[in-house]
Amino acid sequence: SDPGSRFPLEAAQDLDIGRNSIQEYSISPENEYFSVSYGSHSENDRSVELTLKKPLDREEQAEMSFSVIAVDGGSPPRSGTTHVNIIVLDVNDNAPVFTEKIYVGKVLENSPEGTVVLSVLATDQDAGVNGEISYQLRQAVGQSDHPFTIDSMSGEIKLTRPLDFEAVETHELSVRATDGGGLSTVCKVLVEVVDVNDNAPELVVSSFSSPLPENTAPGTVVALFTVRDRDSGANGKISCALEDQLFFSLRPAYKNYYELVTVSALDHREEQSEMGFSFIAVDGGSPPRSGTTQVHVVVLDVNDNAPIFSQEEYIGQVLENMPEGSVVLSVLATDQDAGVNGDVSY
Questions:
Q1: Containing structural domain, residue 335
Q2: pTM, to two decimals
Q3: DSSP assignment, residue 116?
Q4: Are both 310 and 234 inside the same structural domain?
Q5: Which residue, 53, 87, 121, sits at the end of a domain?
């Protein structure tokens, strides 16, 4: 109500007349919001009114009490008192207020549908319908459809589908709280997705040299590997190793690159012309996940073996009258090399 508003009261009754009848009214104790006036519209129509001196605020003081005293003009004066109780009715002059400007919640990316991420809370100083609050969820500008819903009455924010840390690490939402009178306010909600170890390491061969000559020098780079893990933290920290074998080792190159190098000459092609082994990457998750790629190296022959006769000495006999072209004996030599390197001529 505006200052200056008037509220009529029933006048007191005094059976005396003239000066001995009612002369004035007062308020006790004095009230900062109201004053009392006693006017005369006509000789037979005297009115008593409470006048509002300053704006009311139900949220500060919803109820106040005081006495109105009527005093006559007799000597000595006599008075009468009535008790006035003022109840201040609410109007919707307060918007909802959130307990936090920004709410931050964390949720595991493998949390099931229906998981409660966090709850927002807004209060409204108004009463009744004006103080009843409902919540609505809005996605931030530029973000795709978010996997959240909000309980309009409780303010609980829940998942509508599983999250994916590797796709979106933080979801930004806004929640609007609206009271029964239509006033509203907005807060920001940040949902941080917590990574779980749901990705195995991935291995990609960037370059690979095969076949290799069997006289390849130790320290030769045979292959270059890239390893990565889409998880974060310990879940994405990778260690690499080779299966036990004698001819190759693994060494870090830079960042997430590894080199496969020879540690000894491949001079045993005659015993093993092809080599197959595994390159294994393991992350630091609990439990850990691993990725494996197979490496297959073909060893090329070099001419590192001389022909060898089947005997150190051959003994044959020939009759002195045998004709030309008669077979006296046969010799045999073999060569462990392959291809033309193993072809023997006599």
A1: 306-345
A2: 0.64
A3: E
A4: no
A5: 87
What distance in Å separates the CA atoms of residue 11 and residue 35, rounded to the nearest whole number? Answer: 15
Domain-embedded: residue 319: yes
Residue 92 within a domain? no
Can you give the CATH number for the domain in which 270 is found?
2.60.40.60
pLDDT in tens, the chain (346 residues): 999 999 998 889 889 988 899 899 999 998 899 999 887 655 555 789 999 999 999 888 999 999 999 999 999 999 999 999 999 999 998 999 999 999 999 999 989 999 999 999 999 999 999 999 999 998 665 556 779 999 999 999 999 998 988 888 899 999 999 999 999 999 999 999 998 888 888 888 777 777 878 777 788 888 888 888 888 888 888 888 887 667 788 888 877 888 888 887 776 656 667 777 778 888 888 888 888 888 778 877 777 788 999 999 999 899 989 999 889 999 999 888 777 888 899 9
Q: In angstroms, rounded to a whole number, what is the distance separating the alpha carbons of residues 284 and 282?
A: 7
Write the single-letter amino acid at 248: F
Report yes or no: 248 and 210 within 8 Å, Cβ to Cβ: no
Cα 82 to Cα 108: distance, rounded to the nearest angstrom? 67
